[in-house]
Amino acid sequence: MGNTLEAIHLLEKTLQNLLSNYEFLKKENTILLQNNQVLQQQLLEKEQILITQKKEFDLLKIAKTIEGSSSNTKDTKLKINSLIKEIDKCIIQLQE
């Protein structure tokens, strides 16, 4: 009988430890999920900043080319052509 009682107490302690670990891991998981959301938001913001800076860089390259720099003239012409195509598409859509 004493062995059975000891086994039950051991089982209760083990269950309490498991429940304690479960609660701890549950809280830790919640914190990690919140941190993940914050980091995802920061990543999106950084990507938006990167996109904006790339656009600014491209505009700067075009401005430098128009200014008289002989390098990157091909890139500028290609960019102007793509802009003209986009404008033409917009005009066609407006006419419909």
Automatic annotation (TrEMBL):
UniProtKB keywords: Coiled coil
Coiled coil (UniProt feature): 8-42
The protein, known as: Phenylalanyl-tRNA synthetase subunit beta
Source species: Polaribacter vadi
Phylogenetic classification of the source organism: Bacteria, Pseudomonadati, Bacteroidota, Flavobacteriia, Flavobacteriales
